[in-house]
Amino acid sequence: MTAPGLFDTVLLDVNGTLVPSVARPPEQGPALHRFRALVRRLTAAGVRVGLCSDSPLEQLRELGTGIGLEAAPGFPVIAENGNVVADGAAVRVVTPFPALPQVRAEVERAAVAHGLRRAADVTAPEFGGGPPAPGTWAFGANRRASAGVFGPPDFVRDAARCVALRCGDDGVEVSVGLSPDGSCAGIHPYAPAELGKRTTLARLAGERGRRVLMVGNSPADWIPGVPGVACAFVADDSVPDDVRDAAWYVSPGEDLEGVVDILGRVVRRAVPRGAARS
User: Fold this and answer.
1) CA–CA dist 69, 97 (Å, integer)
2) Cβ contact 106:162 at 8 Å
3) What is the 3 state secondary structure string of the chain?
4) Whose CA is closest to 41, among 242, 269, 265, 271?
5) Nearest by Cα to 45 from 93, 7, 83, 96
6) How far apart are the first and last CA of the chain?
7) Fewest C-beta in 10 Å: which of 39, 54, 142, 258?
8) What is the pTM assigned to this prediction?
9) Number of C-alpha atoms within 13 angstroms, CB side, residue 144?
10) Which domain of life is it from (predicted)?
11) Are the CB atoms for 52 and 214 separated by under 8 Å?
């Protein structure tokens, strides 16, 4: 458990954290207004609030600006499951994916076998997008060093299996993750999938002695044993008891309500008593 003190950076997961696991854009309601007020107070206290997600950078920047973070690129973003890092205008890929063309070709072969037609690249529902039309499939838009695959669950599962088998035969290290309903797969150039986020947060915390708080909703957001990195969780049954016991804080609130609760605790440590509220 991280000792009390000021965090320099707070990174928020998106699916199941800022928005429900049944993804949709954040609702314009009281919780979002409280969220924005807390972000303003943290920013004034020198705490940067950003996003950390499997999603692509462009969508995360648009989402962050829309929910009240600084105007992009003013807030930090860790995209594509830790593999793309944006801090200001600088963007870097942590682990290149030279096998990406071959991975995409394997997905395309699976689509042909399923009799599906490729549609234009799509964005996820939390960014205002939607699934491909019936009889079609699509890659996820704007990915630099990973692949997102959207379509009928039987095709997506088969494509994920084919990619894993082909990469295994070729000695290419990848991780392949499926959404709970099987309609989307994420393919990354390292295994296990958690390695990307862990490596990037460790590097971020190591820069100038930063203290980072990762806010999520599942074991995938648990980064144990990394100096300078603490974790907090919104309410979710998937977080096991040992993780709850070791976390910086676990909120009883779900989704955005839980995020607001967690940010409120950070504010109480970061902002002196009596400081003006925005």
Assistant:
1) 30
2) yes
3) CCCCCCCCEEEECCECCCECCCCCCCCCCHHHHHHHHHHHHHHHCCCEEEEECCCCHHHHHHHHHHHCCCCCCCCCEEEHHHCEEEECCEEEECCCCCCHHHHHHHHHHHHHHCCCEECCCECCHHHCCCCCCCCEEEEECCCCCCEEEECCHHHHHHHHHHHHHHHHHHCCCCEEEECCCCCEEEEECCCCCHHHHHHHHHHHHHHHHCCEEEEECCHHHCCCCCCCEEEEECCCCCCCHHHHHHCCEECCCCHHHHHHHHHHHHHHHHCCCCCCCC
4) 271
5) 7
6) 31
7) 142
8) 0.89
9) 21
10) Bacteria
11) yes
pLDDT along the chain (278 residues), means of 10: 67 91 69 95 93 94 93 92 91 94 97 98 88 97 96 98 95 90 92 79 84 94 92 95 96 95 91 50
What does the pLDDT look like over 233-245, one tens digit per residue? Answer: 999 999 999 999 9
Q: Could you identify the residue written with the tokens 């529902």?
A: 125
Superfamily (CATH H level) for 9-94+195-270: HAD superfamily/HAD-like (3.40.50.1000)
Q: Map out the domains of the chain as residue ranges.
A: 9-94+195-270, 100-188
Structure tokens at 237: 């049954």
Nearest by Cα to 145 from 82, 179, 188: 188
Beta-bridged to residue 90, according to DSSP, are 87
